[in-house]
Specification:
alpha+beta, 121 residues, 4 strands
Length: 121
Amino acid sequence: MRIGSSLINAYSGMKTFEDASSVTANNVANVATSTFKSQTPVIQEMPSGGSTVSSIVKDDSQGPLTESVLAGGQFGLVEGSNVDLPKETVNSVIYRSAYEASAKMLKTSDEMVQRAIDIVA
């Protein structure tokens, strides 16, 4: 692996897991929003190396139904969000750890470039 490609892979990993974290943050922010449908980032390896969020898939499963007072004082069922908070918490930890690993890889690659420049100079 060339040094340049390790820099690109590290950067793409940081960008990928930043984007994935944004999807998770949006899900958590909408946990109490009626009828909100959670989303899942699809992470894909790129042919040239690195990774990307290739798409975001919406989960159309039904959220829990709760009885609520509707317009006109009528009672009815309202669908809650289908966000699985424990799952989103785990995803958040995974994405943060992957981001940190990519950041360490970027720092190491940068140090390797600096050493190579020092050797040549």
